[in-house]
Design brief:
By secondary structure, this protein is an all-beta fold. The chain has no helices and four strands. A two-stranded antiparallel ribbon has the order 1-2. The protein has a two-stranded antiparallel sheet with strand order 3-4. It is elongated.
Length: about 90
């Protein structure tokens, strides 16, 4: 399948090293100015444990080979839902 995107009438320099030009009417903003953080946390620690990677996205941890330690309790760990943007702040 081939996806053909249209072009914009005019472009400008983005000021970013990883993307040279952007459409003239676009603005460059920091993510924290666009997205709202969600800070809902587990009360029981019994939710399904997930892992995030750049290769697979957010997936159940039990199906992955994760070498990091497991916590004694997951009470207080952040929760997420389908459609959420999840970022590992240690890798960001």
């Amino acid at each position: 399948m081939s996806l053909r995107l249209g072009s914009y009438p005019a472009y400008k320099h983005s000021g970013l090293s990883w993307v040279k030009r952007i459409p003239e009417q676009w603005a460059v903003r920091r993510a924290k100015a666009v997205f709202l953080p969600v800070d809902r946390r587990s009360a029981s620690g019994h939710e399904e444990l997930l892992t995030v990677s750049s290769k697979h996205g957010v997936v159940p941890r039990h199906g992955q080979q994760v070498t990091m330690f497991k916590a004694q309790s997951y009470i207080g760990h952040k929760l997420c839902w389908p459609g959420d943007l999840v970022i590992n702040s240690l890798w960001a």
